[in-house]
Amino acid sequence: MDKMEVYRTVGTCCKQIMFSVNEKDELSSCIFIHGCSGNQQAISKLVVGMPIDQVIDKLRGIPCKGTTSCPDQLAKALIAYKERNAREQ
User: Fold this and answer.
1) Which member of 35, 51, 69, 77 lies 3.0 to 4.6 Å from 64 by CB, making a disulfide possible if both were Cys?
2) pLDDT per position as a tens digit, 42-60
3) In contact, 27 and 52? CB cutoff 8 Å
4) Contact at 8 Å (CB) between 25 and 52?
5) What does the mean pLDDT of the chain come to?
6) Alpha-carbon distance 89 to 86, whole Å?
7) 8 Å CB contact between 43 and 32
8) Centroid of chain to Cα 18
9) Residue spans of beta strands (DSSP E) within 1-89
10) What SS3 state is found at 31?
């Protein structure tokens, strides 16, 4: 089973994003904590199974209230995940 990562969001209704990445660098799960349930369920269903670089490319920079959004925060979470893994190797 893939390790569940937790990312604390900034500037959104959602407070946390929990996600896991498989050995092929694909998003294997994605759960938003709080926020707009329907939108977050849709985002999760659309991105699970996608390569994380593709998720970042598609979602990075999408604004909502202000300069960020739940999709943008997911992109930021995945960028932080990639940077942390690069440092650990």
Assistant:
1) 69
2) 999 999 999 999 999 999 9
3) yes
4) yes
5) 95
6) 5
7) yes
8) 8
9) 5-8, 16-21, 27-33
10) strand
Q: Which residue reads 């759960």 in tokens?
A: 31
The token pair that represents 86 in the structure block: 């690069």
Which H or E element spans position 71? Answer: helix 70-88
Tokens of 53: 């670089």
The Cα 76–Cα 59 span in angstroms is 9
| Single-letter amino acid code for the residue at 41 | Q
pLDDT, residue 23, reads 94
- With 0-12 / 13-18 / 19 or more C-beta atoms within 10 angstroms meaning exposed / middle / buried, residue 69 is buried
What pTM was computed for the model?
A: 0.95
69 has a pLDDT exceeding 70: yes
Percent helix, strand, coil in the chain (nearest 5)?
A: 45, 20, 35
Q: What's the Cα-to-Cα distance from 77 to each of 24, 38, rounded to whole Å?
A: 18, 20
